[in-house]
Amino acid sequence: MWWVVVEEPRGSDRNWSLSETFPHPDRETAESEALRLAREYQPAYPWSPKSRKVLRGPDGYLVIVEGRTSTFHFRLSVLEEI
Fold first, then answer.
1. Which of 5, 8, 34, 43 is the most buried (most CB within 10 A)?
2. What whole-number distance in Å separates Cα of residue 11 and Cα of residue 45?
3. What are 16-28's pLDDT values in tens digits?
């Protein structure tokens, strides 16, 4: 089983936390879903997103979302359950 995991800063302290998990039967499907989420996932912050940059790494994506007054980011990882 492969998982797409979304981590983002949440709460008043903006601590990193696990936001969403999406199970998939194989790595290929999980990687496709991670790319889709990198382009479409709506993070908790910022509230008025204007643009996003998607950066791909070895096991997922870092997405930088620019809002009206601030910039935030979130991570998407593709992980295998063992």
1. 34
2. 10
3. 888 889 999 999 9
List, in order, residues 6 or more apart from 36 with CB less than 8 Å away. none
pTM of the model: 0.86
What H or E segment, with its residue span, contains residue 24?
Answer: strand 15-24
Task: Collect all residues with Cβ–Cβ distance below 8 Å to 63 and sequence separation of at least 6.
Answer: 38, 41, 43, 52, 53, 54, 55, 73, 74, 75, 76
Angle at 65 between CA 74 and CA 1, to 5 degrees: 35
Alpha carbon distance, N-terminus to C-terminus of the chain: 8
